Amino acid sequence: MDKVRENLQNPQMKKTKVRWFIVMMLFLVTSVNYADRATISIAGDALQSDLGLNAVSMGYVFSAFGWAYVIAQIPGGILLDKFGSKLVIGMSILIWSIFTLLQGTIGFFAAGTAIVVLFALRFLVGFAEAPSFPGNSRVVAAWFPSNERGTASAIFNSAQYFALVIFSPLMGWLTYSYGWESVFYVMGAIGIVLALVWLKVIRNPREHPRVNKAEIDYIEAGGGIVDMDQKKEDAGAKEKQSQWPFIKQLLKKRMLIGIYIAQYCITTLTYFFLTWFPVYLVQGRGMSILEAGFIASLPAICGFLGGILGGMFSDFLLRKNLSLTIARKTPIIIGMLLSCSMIICNYVDAEWLVVVIMSLAFFGKGFGALGWAVVSDTSPKQTAGVSGGLFNTFGNIASITTPIIIGYIVNATGSFNGALIFVGANALVAILSYLFIVGKIERVELEAPTK
After folding, report:
1. Which of 96, 111, 202, 310 is the most core-located residue (most Cβ within 10 A)?
2. Burial 4-18 (b: 16+ CB within 10 A, else e)
3. What distance in Å separates the CA atoms of residue 342 and residue 364, rounded to the nearest whole number?
4. Is residue 104 within 8 Å of 156, Cβ to Cβ?
5. Where are the transmembrane segments (predicted)?
6. CA distance 12 to 423
7. How far is it, in rounded angstroms, from Cα 126 to Cα 100?
8. Higher model confidence: residue 224 or residue 394?
9. pTM for this one?
10. What is the pLDDT of residues 350-372, one digit of tens each?
């Protein structure tokens, strides 16, 4: 604590860059987060064969995560606003990793029981992961000024693609060499170690031993809410206040409704790649699971690059004195237009061309995935966690609907052609929502509820 006081009391010190270490920790956590979501897709073909599941049943298993993830968003946001980002995110990582590891044990159960246990464990993983992205958004809002928030949000959001780049080949190799159970054991163990690291190294802005006053002043001057979690320490002395009046106000804002609709559509693209894409490569394009694991990483590399470039491009527009609305909407619209290109895969046969087209679509999806930057820009200061939870609730309804809808399409048609059209159409709806519903992007001001 003496080091913290010394740093904060010396205004002549050169500005530190601790905020970038914080966002790299968010990047690492989010990489494991998405890898654990994708375990079931990489192991999916072998697991489907062992348990005797058809496409519809597999779709429901894929959706188990989404049901809990959506249900727990607002409670997760309330926990974040009450206990702060560090503790809630750390416990979230630990709990979801334990449930991921336990999925490796379902092979010990009879087929019918195994399906129930698998669904239950996927459900619990979704429940435990619920605070993660609202928590990320809160951390970025606390540690970053507005003109760096797009880049910071893009860095942690692009981890979903990095996760596929790094972990898809690893999980494909584990499945091929040691069986699908090993995927869950290894990823669960990695997450448990990461939870302990997070709890050890993460601090609030004013409490971090390496931060100095120059950096704190810079963050505050740019709109960073550096005291977000310190204020929660005094909450117990105040009368407890219900969050529901604030939630009702948020749900009446046209800007937020448009953002929610668009996020649902963008998340549809995310969950196609997280659930059915490796299965599409195996069953729709005749690849082996080992090939699918490695090939799935190629579009993911493009998605990762797109994610970083989209955030940087948005902040570049902001630094050129363009409005926040233009700076955020432009990359989103460009990215979603590129994502629509996946429909072209229905009309080509060459595997290499399918990979190229999907890589372009994935690049676009990453380039346009600025939803969490928009959340950091628009969330009211007094309910940042709840606002992020509400945004993620609407967006992740797609984590339920997407696997199920695609499962029915594939089961009814025996083809993935309709599935690609369905996913591409969602990208178009996201564009229309930002163009015609969202309007001006600005921070929401809430009225104090009457007693």
Report:
1. 310
2. beebbeeeeeeebeb
3. 10
4. no
5. 20-40, 52-71, 83-102, 108-128, 154-176, 182-202, 255-274, 294-318, 330-348, 354-375, 387-410, 416-437
6. 53
7. 10
8. 394
9. 0.70
10. 888 888 999 999 899 989 988 87
Query: What angle separates helix 181-201 from helix 18-42, to the nearest 10 degrees?
Result: 160
Token digits for 115? 């399906």
Helix (H, G, I), strand (E, B) or coil at 369: coil
E strand spans, 256-392: none
429: Cα separation from own chain's centroid: 20
Whole-number Å distance between alpha carbons of 340 and 342: 5
Tokens of 135: 């928590």
Which are the contacts of 331, defined by CB distance < 8 A and separation ≥ 6?
A: 310, 311, 313, 314, 367, 368, 370
Reported confidence tier of residue 235, pLDDT bands at 50, 70, 90: very low
Look at 166 and 123; give whichever has higher pLDDT. 123
Tokens found for residue 265: 């559509």
Distance CA 135, CA 219 (A): 18
Which residue, 129, 149, 326, 315, is CA-closest to 225?
149
Burial (0-12, 13-18, 19+ Cβ within 10 Å), 71: middle
Average pLDDT, the chain: 83
Nearest Cα residue to 277 out of 28, 30, 37, 33: 37
Q: Are the CB atoms for 385 and 134 separated by under 8 Å?
A: yes
**What SS3 class is residue 451?**
coil
- Dist. CA 270–CA 303, nearest whole Å: 10
pLDDT digits (tens, 9 = 90+) for 103-158: 888 877 776 777 788 888 889 998 899 888 888 888 888 888 878 887 888 788 77
Rounded to 5°, angle at Cα 248 from 147 and 79: 65
Residue 288 clears pLDDT 60, i.e. is over it: yes
